[in-house]
Specification:
Length: 191
Amino acid sequence: YSASQVTYTNLANAGFDTAGLPQKTSANNWDGGFVSAEAIAGDGYAEAVIADATTHKMLGLDAVDSNSSYTDIQYALYFRNDGLVDIYENGTAIRTSISRYTAGDIGRVERKGDLIYYKLNGTIVGTSSSRSTGPLHLDVALWNMGGKIGPCYLVGRTTEGVDLPNPGIQITQGDADGNIALAAFVSGGPT
């Protein structure tokens, strides 16, 4: 696989803070967020650094971004403002209080084959009972004004059959499975 920081699209009531992280710009409500322009066609994952543990946010994978609310995210990790994590699918709580998190933790929603795995800091905290096929985008929903998440990455093979990195991306680290993490700022995001 290859990875790149996502191209942020469909920003709703969101902008970027001084460090370039996506941030909610409107009052508290599930009306802020964004989706990645890129989509994975098969195995891959959406991943983000959880910037704080005091605001509500959801990170997940979604086929179609119909609105900026969490209700349209097919597979999501919900990072609550009390430091607990829930799993949501299609806007419905599937499992609640599955783990605790702190600022700086890494959330991941991953597809392998047709299965979805929910991970926190590389540890599986849940698995979806529904099967997943077709292209998926990274999708984020934010509740609190000032709430932020990121950087956000999408890792895998695109719907066009090519690896995700954009020209000029620098390899920064790798893992035992041969996956590489890349750092870059792409159009629509931080510069």
